[in-house]
Amino acid sequence: MKTFESLRNTIGRTSRTHRVLACTLAGLWLLRAFMLPLYPLCDPTEGRYAEIGRQMVVSGDWVVPRIDARAPFLGKPPLSFWATAVSVGLLGPTEFAARLPPYLSMLALAVATVTFGVRFGNTTTGLLAGLLLSTSVMPWVAAGTVFTDPLLALCAGGALMTFYATLMSRTLPQRRNWLGRGFFALLALGVLSKGLVAIVVWVLFRRKSTLVLESLPWLSGTAIFAAIAVPWHVMAEMREPGFLQYYFVGEHFSRFFVKDWSGDRYGSVHDSFPGMIWILALAATFPWCIAVPLALGRRRRSKVEEHAAGMAPDLKWLLAIHALFPATFFTLSSNVVITYVLPGIPAGCLLVGDALSRRSRQGNATGHGAPVPATRRFVPLACIVPAASILVLAFLAPRLTAGKSQRGVVEAIRRIDPAGEMQVVYYKLERPSAGYYLANAPTHADSGEELRAGLHDNTCNLYVVKRGHEDDMQAATRGLPLHLAANVGPFEVYSE
Predict the structure, then answer these.
(1) For residues 9 and 220, what is the distance between their CA atoms, to the nearest angstrom?
(2) Which residues are CB-contacts of 487 (< 8 A; sequence separation ≥ 6)?
(3) What angle do CA 485, 488, 492 make, to 5 degrees?
(4) How far is Cα 240 from Cα 354, in angstroms, rounded to an integer?
């Protein structure tokens, strides 16, 4: 609480530039919230994770995540699904409800980054770090996409920050113990996040083992960790034997280090080449991966800048290791996606914010430039990604999502069957967002035999098929008079 009061008071009495930064951040996050319901859920990722949350609400089963009533989903931990289920249960199955948990996770991470930067650096460091984090490509996209990484990034970033705050509170035993327990709780909530390994590397490299052993509440912290992390894993294994083997070994090792791994139950291998993760890291941090090196590399550091107050050297080492660890860990893996670098971005933003803050102090001491000379030039740069997303939403979103979302198909189905009395059958087509938009999982048939076996004389059906499979479907439903009822992008809807 004192930290938030300090942040508010500091911003209130500081320069106009800082207030501009704070207002820019607030405006950008309000814009991001406004955009959440304006584009459809895309398959497979968004539709799958949103439907898993809806299935939890409908079934009442909060232990085993399910894609539908038939198939458990054991590839991810359940925390993000629980958050989605709570949101959908309160707000209904809408795009806004599905995307609200990742939005709140990234917003909380941005607030934590600003607060941490102000507490252990200065106001400029915190606000710049928050601006860099909020307007990089990956965090901006993550704040409006239904997937598990935003909540994991929040847990990993929160664990990193509470870890360091615990070490710095060793003269205040009560505060240190509460922070330490919070650290263990956040580790448990993001059980296999990359933050823990990065912290261990930092402890060994900086020879802080004794300090860590003395500062953290190991007994109560371990109990908290076990109480949060262990029960679900035990219950999931009891409900679905073999879960632990697949989840820990398959999803966390084989997926990344076994070439052409054939055990993936829920997707396909993202085959690229070793080192691809570094290219993805540059894309994830655009435009700052270009703008920041140019801003910091224009002139040599002065003695004023070298001795300017800022983050402690030990903290810089911790942040550097945490920022680089995800990309370093996945360097040799060819099965990578851009979201893997997300947990390291907040630490990198704090480091860059500190460097830019020192440069601004050089400007003050030499009498050149505004109080924070780089900041005002960065505000227009901060608008690049949000402005680009608005343009994509306005002009390209319908074309980009035409074959990746079932919102248009479900709207057509509701026009055909306003009362919702007809059974919807998807033939040779898995689209999880259909169940979410229908608020009722459709029937799936992967072959003509399955389709014929599911036909009932007293039930009228609607059939959804991707263009190119309609002749096969009509042959499988021979004897039924089918006619084309709707054509939505690459999908066709037939009614009896």
Answers:
(1) 34
(2) 493
(3) 50
(4) 48
Residues 231-250: tens digit of each pLDDT: 998 998 999 888 888 777 76
In whole angstroms, give the CA distance from residue 167 to residue 404: 47
The Cα–Cα gap between 428 and 441 comes to 15
Residue type, 60: G
Quick one: how far is CA 130 from the chain centroid?
17
**Is pLDDT above 70 for 225?**
yes
CA 152 – CA 77 distance, rounded (Å): 10
CA distances from 124 to 20, 47, 62, 284, 475 (A): 12, 40, 43, 23, 68
Please say whether the beta carbons of 431 and 47 come within 8 A: yes
CB atoms within 10 A of CB 425: 23
Tokens of 181: 């327990």
CB count within 10 Å of CB 237 equals 15
pLDDT tens per residue, range 310-326: 788 889 999 999 999 88
| 3-state SS assignment for residue 302 | coil
Residue written as token pair 């050089």: 362
Q: Residue 293, preceding bond cis, omega within 30 degrees?
A: no
Confidence of residue 94 (pLDDT cuts 50, 70, 90): very high
C-alpha angle 437/443/448, rounded to 5°? Answer: 135
CA distance 108 to 186: 13
Q: How many residues does the chain have?
A: 496
Long-range interactions of 275-281: CB distance < 8 A, separation 24+? 275/331, 276/334, 276/336, 277/326, 277/327, 277/330, 277/331, 277/333, 277/336, 277/340, 277/341, 278/327, 278/331, 280/336, 280/337, 280/338, 280/340, 280/341, 281/326, 281/327, 281/341, 281/344
Place of tokens 């263990």: 184
Asked if 70 and 76 count as a contact pair (C-beta separation under 8 A), the reply is no
Does pTM top 0.85 for this prediction? yes
Read off the amino acid at residue 2. Answer: K
Cα gap 313→203, rounded to integer Å? 14
The reply to whether omega before 287 is within 30° of 0 (cis) is: yes
Question: Residue 352, Cβ neighbours under 10 Å: how many?
Answer: 23
**What's the angle, vertex CA 316, arms to CA 310 and CA 320, rounded to 5?**
145
Residue closest to 195 by CA, chosen among 207, 184, 210, 180: 184
